[in-house]
Design a protein that fits this description.
The chain contains 11 helices and 5 strands; from the N terminus they run H-H-E-E-E-H-E-E-H-H-H-H-H-H-H-H. By secondary structure, the protein is of the alpha/beta class. The longest helix has 18 residues.
Amino acid sequence: MKTDKIFYTLFQAFPDLLFQLLGQPTELAQNYQFQSIEIKELAFRLDGVFLPDDNSPDRPIYFLEVQFQKDPHFYWRFFTEIILYLNQYKPHRQWQAIVLWGKPSFDVELPLAYELFESRLQRIYLDSLPQTSSSLALGIIQLIFTPEANAPAQTQALVTQTRQQISDVNLQQDIIELIEKVITYKFPHKSRQELEQMFTLTDWQQTRFYQDAKKEGEQKAKLETVPLLLKLGLTPEQIALELKLDLEKVQAAIANQNN
């Protein structure tokens, strides 16, 4: 499941989500900006950094990572990136490392060399979040772990909650699109038609994600007819015209067929 993009989109839409997870006042999000920051020396990138503004000198920097697989080298990489960031930007404030693990079994042992950072590390296991929260953002996270039988009802509830709580039309559409991405990634082996039958979300047809996927599917179906049209004697130019495709894509399909 492509969780990184989902979570970083969630934090962009709901900056207070981090503080919900940490059990801190959500108002603190007003003093932070969520960014992706490049470490120039070695071309590393920290995907999730909560930077406090200049009016909050006592607030720490939060370095955030989402991890949905077991990686024995994870902490080596994560803390190395943090140290490189601190060396490059030299911030005059404290910092905290936050890891959102999909479940405890993914977590790995903190290397002995980094045990001095234990007090700066907070692990959160997403499959253990309380189910009683009314938070829309937490509800989207919980959808990732919801059993298939319960997913349609929970998805519809989240869409309804989005309409009720989000007044900005563009943001509302973005969040519905994010919910769609979650269930599309959650059920990768189901066709779009099967998902539409499962979830009956008419909103899907209005989202960019739906439109892009639909266009991609239609284009793939057209390209699959290229070999047949070639056998019928059409030239690549005629095929491109007939299928309303770029000539370059038709030529690429022919080249792939010949390889």
